[in-house]
Amino acid sequence: MNALAPQTGLLPGFNDPVADSQKMFRAVLEAMSRPGTIVTAPVLPVAPQPLNPVAAALILALADYETPLWLDPAARQPAAIDYVRFHCGCPLVEAPDQAGFALVTDAKSMPPLSAFHLGSDEYPDRSTTVIVQVPHLDGGEAWRLKGPGIRDQAILAAGQLPSAFKAWVQDNHALFPRGVDLLFAAPGQLAGLPRSTLLEG
Amino acid sequence: MSTGYNFAYLDEQTKRMLRRAILKAVAIPGYQVPFGSREMPLPYGWGTGGIQVTAAVIGADDRLKVIDQGADDTTNAVSIRRFFARTAGVATTEKTREATVIQTRHRIPETPLSEGQIMVYQVPIPEPLRWLEPRETETRKMHALADYGAMHVKLYEDIARFGHIATTYDYPVLVGGRYLMRPSPIPKFDNPKMDNSPALQLFGAGREKRIYAVPPYTSVKSLDFEDHPFEVQRWDQACALCGSTESFLDEVVTDDQGGRMYVCSDSDYCGERRQEQGQ
Amino acid sequence: MYVAVKGGEKAIDNAHALLAEDRRGDETIPELTLTQIDQQLGLAVDRVMTEGSVYDRELAALALKQAQGDAVEAIFLLRAYRTTLPRFGASQPVDTGAMAIRRRISAAFKDLPGGQVLGPTYDYTHRLLDFALAAEGAPRASVESAEAGLEPAPRVTDVLHHQGLIEPSGNGADLPGDLTRQPLNFPAGRDLRLQNLARGDEGFLLALAYSSQRGYGNTHPFAGEIRMGEVAVELVPEELGFAIDIGTITVTECQMINQFKGSKDIPPQFTRGYGLTFGQGERKAMAMALVDRSLRAEDLGEQATNPAQDQEFVLYHSDNVEASGFVQHLKLPHYVDFQSELEMIRRLRRENAEAAQ
């Protein structure tokens, strides 16, 4: 598939789809099972504007024709749309609550977490996984995390999120077992914040 | 490594589907995520769920250990280890300490697990309420409402009848204070090892098409009552080979005159102890 | 001194070698070819294709050869192979109304357009062992005339439908679900139920269908029509946008006609039960049609109290690859769980004895 890229102007996906997908998945698994841990991204594909390479790698590793994808308005650019359509074949959806995955590239203007699919009491797994692109994972407001995957407590200080974000995360946790799961994609790094994590304070 | 099939047998779309299910399972500890279980080249009931989970997780850098009844050399463990050596070309080991991924049927190793390790349990029946309520539509509602009274009643009836909770394996646990979960048919002896384990624990039920998980450092509480606290099996004997009084022992019948001896079910643990003792 | 049993690997290799030896049998006897199995054990091939859900006579014949004729094992082999196949698309629904008919009977009408065509059937054979077959090279019986399939043969249910006497069937516009890709949820739609039944074990469906006839169910079926023959398979490639013929398959279709009282909004009309198999699978198609109708009880506002009407019971237990695996997994070691039970039972007996003293 990568051979097509030069002719169409489309950026290539993973160099080695089988191995790169597996490595990226393990990084996500580490991030989700140890909330707040900053995990180094093992592969960094060339990403279309305005995606960062980690966000692109997450989509390549996890999304396909079975997962409706919601792109925030900032990400709805031809390069990004062609990229996810070509490499993942995922249907793009307009409504955030229809999405299996959502990609937020401009966190400041994102909808509240409650706008995404929250799952049901009987099928809480059907909720959206929200990928939020951030400039860094430390140096922002420090949150103290508790819950499954965390030995005593963990600290996450993702940068440049809307001021209401912390309250959204707390409201999201209060819905447990319903709720969205968050993946933060920073340059070269990622971190996870599943619905099971409690934000203290 | 045999060619003609994809790495670790499954196609990439299937692996992505499994990986998404695993991530949801991790995010909702103890909840059973339905997944599009595939037909594997091994029979249902023989570890197809565990194999699919391992195939979704494993990479070229991993070192795989497979045990059945605690031992690396039981035929089904050998067969599964060979499957991955053949289809994924991964390194295998019998050493618990060296393994990054451990697929198991019916035991948790005696050697304590560590951070970064992944346990993959083969699960025959994932639903803890199944013997109390055969209908999936009903048990799903019970989980939604966290309505687990029926399980407490069942355990209490045991106490009334036998003076003890008579469940000895696949002993129900509450995960993260929310979901009732079957730990798979491990002896209740192993239940305490699941609680706050540093390892990630993944459970795959292929025929029943469910995946569930216990993240590291997550509370896993075996159900009990104040006046009948949970307790594990104990033996009066020590292992006849390594002398351990701490491990789960298998009874081996040596003759038909009542002769028997007890040996560790965990072959790696037992072997390591014997090596230390210079045997 | 006791030594723990070792050598699982060697035992497995030896088991496979013994199996290969058994499979081949006496080497002075000529080896079966796949063509022989396909041509001379065709109904076994048909069953393996149907329950294995792959239409490929050669692969099904290979599976049967490899499984020494064990149908369930052969079905398993074919299913495991199927899992690895890439999917290029979904075909258009096959049009059984345009079938090149080799057999077609209706128990509802004495005569109808296209006629009754008996075709190849065991129905009227007297079940007497034919010792002439035991002598190889028995002469072939010649077929007197073959007028089958010359005249258009509309489906009996279509005839009834034109008069409004039977409920409409789905129009096939929605892409059906696929339980081999997505887990089954309940209540399951009819598309998924039919897929499950088509893959389901013939013996299981036969017994369930039989139970529904004996009072464990409220069905009063007529075999509206059973037809067997060749149908075209068409695919609409994305880049073309119109249907192209990609081949021909043999199928057996059974449409059962059942009573329905009707309701306040719907006048009384007949209801349908549907069965379809690859190749010649009349027994299976009929059983499937009866069970399909039974499973529609709840949709049609009938009481669903019998096994054949119980979705979870039928759909969760119909698959012989699943059932065979789980029943036979009891062969695997359960030392640890058994040890746990032994420890408990000894303790309970000890306490019992102490209490009795």
Count of discrete alpha- or pi-helical segments spanning 4 or more residues of chain B: 7
Order of helices and strands of chain B: HEHEHEEEHHEEHEEEEEH
**Which topology of chain A does CATH recognise?**
Rossmann fold
Can you list the strand order of the major beta sheet of chain A?
1-8-7-4-3-2
- Global structural class of chain A: alpha/beta
Major sheet: arrangement of strands of chain B: 1-9-8-5-4-2-3
Q: Greatest chain-chain interface?
A: B-C, 68 and 49 residues
Detail the poorly predicted runs of chain A. 1-7
Main beta sheet of chain A = 6 strands, mixed
Q: Can you give a write-up of this model?
A:
The complex is a heterotrimer of chains A (201), B (279) and C (357). Chain A is built from five helices and nine strands, in the order H-H-E-H-E-H-E-E-E-E-H-E-E-E. Chain A is α/β, with parallel strands linked by helices. In chain A, helix 2 packs across helix 3. By secondary structure, chain B is an alpha/beta fold. In chain B, helix 3 links the parallel strand 2 and strand 3. In chain B, helix 1 packs across helix 2. The longest helix of chain B has 16 residues. Chain C folds into two domains: 74 residues, no CATH class; 194 residues, no CATH class. The mean pLDDT of chain C is 90. Chains in contact: A-B, B-C. At the B-C interface, helix 3 and strand 11 of B face helix 1, helix 5, helix 12 and helix 13 of C.
Topology diagram in text:
The complex is a heterotrimer of chains A (201), B (279) and C (357).
Chain A: H1 5-8, H2 17-33, E1 39-40, H3 53-62, E2 69-71, H4 78-88, E3 101-104, E4 129-133, E5 143-146, E6 154-156, H5 165-174, E7 181-186, E8 189-193, E9 198-200
Helix pairs in contact in A: 2-3
Chain B: H1 12-27, E1 33-34, H2 48-57, E2 63-68, H3 75-87, E3 91-92, E4 101-105, E5 118-122, H4 136-144, H5 149-162, E6 173-175, E7 179-181, H6 191-194, E8 200-205, E9 210-214, E10 220-222, E11 249-253, E12 260-264, H7 267-276
Parallel strand pairs in B: 2-3, 2-4, 4-5, 5-8
Antiparallel strand pairs in B: 1-9, 6-7, 6-10, 8-9, 11-12
Chain C: H1 8-24, H2 34-40, H3 42-52, H4 57-66, H5 71-83, E1 100-105, H6 131-134, H7 156-162, H8 190-199, H9 202-213, E2 222-235, E3 244-258, E4 271-278, H10 282-295, H11 311-317, H12 320-328, H13 335-356
Antiparallel strand pairs in C: 1-2, 2-3, 3-4
Helix pairs in contact in C: 2-4, 3-4, 3-5, 4-5, 8-10, 9-10
